[in-house]
Design a protein that fits this description.
By secondary structure, the chain is an alpha+beta fold. It has eleven helices and twelve strands.
């Protein structure tokens, strides 16, 4: 099993948001990747520029951030040829690693634009090193820049940032500092493609929580009417957990609940309702996590505050 650590650089419409192509807001200009073996030793590299065909001129922000010359792009091949070579280079038995989730999103949008079949497995499990770095060295919530992580881990900075291959190299260097039990335990699930039917819905159990990704629903209300979406089965023993508080809105498109498993104790539920990538419907991401009595009391208080705001005021 190899690690494919990749980074992309891209361009956007230089003429403003109103002239942007909705199906491809960012056009990939460069792919850089480092291949590590199971011992996290570098065994190969991939690097190619891509000739733009959607946005031929560079956005001023692109010029400021990345280091790509017009000559590099003029001599490059187009996306379908480059991505075919990249796919062959990756091989079959590999784990994809990125700094953050955006690279995977934009890569799949570019694949769709060029009507190239999505070659990633479904469901797509990948390793967001930005998130795993936070879970390993900080509070799990902060999202730091790649350069911050490199500085914190005292990795030598001998090549520039904001170049696809160099950023992939630095991300691979961070991976080497992360213990295997952390790295392999906290994979992420990509939401570009979601389950099409109930039998494809995703159920994943991690070290201290469980995640469920639903199929598409026509509306938010339909999401919250589905029995599987609102269930609170204990992810450790598989038995139904008794609802102590119903699902209640907590702001935005989020809902929370409180349940109790007779064997394992209190369990916090959270549902996030998201639009599908093509804006044709909605899907749910539900997480369930065991908590202590103190955290359960905080959820009760939050619920009653929400309830009080809904009660009519007396004259």
């Amino acid at each position: 099993m190899d690690y494919i650590v990749f980074d992309l650089e891209w361009n956007q419409c230089p003429d403003g948001k109103e002239k942007e192509r909705p199906d491809i807001p960012f056009e990939i200009l460069e792919i850089g990747a480092i291949k590590l073996n199971s011992e996290k030793q570098e065994i190969d590299r991939f690097h190619e520029f891509i000739k733009p065909t959607v946005y031929s001129r560079l956005h001023y922000k692109t010029k400021e951030i990345i280091h790509i010359s017009p000559e590099d792009l003029k001599q490059a091949d187009r996306f379908p040829d480059v991505i075919r070579r990249f796919r062959q280079w990756c091989g079959e038995d590999c784990l994809f690693c990125t700094w953050g989730a955006l690279d995977l999103l934009e890569l799949q949008r570019n694949l769709r634009h060029y009507t190239i079949p999505n070659f990633f497995p479904f469901p797509l499990k990948y390793y967001d090193i930005q998130k795993i770095f936070s879970l390993t060295y900080e509070d799990g919530k902060l999202r730091r820049s790649l350069e911050f992580a490199v500085d914190m881990l005292e990795i030598k900075k001998d090549i520039p940032f904001h170049e696809a291959l160099s950023d992939a190299y630095y991300t691979a260097s961070v991976i080497r500092r992360i213990p295997d039990d952390k790295l392999l335990s906290f994979y992420s699930i990509d939401y570009f493609r979601i389950p099409q039917k109930a039998s494809e819905e995703i159920f994943a159990v991690f070290q201290n929580y469980a995640k469920y990704v639903s199929r598409m629903f026509p509306s938010r209300k339909e999401c919250m009417r589905d029995r599987t979406v609102v269930s609170t089965k204990c992810y450790l023993c598989g038995k139904p957990a008794a609802k102590k508080l119903p699902w209640f809105p907590t702001g935005g498109k989020n809902y929370s609940s409180l349940a109790y498993c007779a064997e394992h104790g209190y369990m916090k539920g959270k549902i996030r309702i998201k639009k599908t990538e093509d804006n044709k419907g909605y899907f749910c991401v539900k997480t369930l996590k065991l908590i202590d009595e103190g955290r359960a009391q905080e959820i009760r208080e939050r619920y009653h505050k929400k309830l009080a705001k809904k009660e009519p005021q007396e004259d």
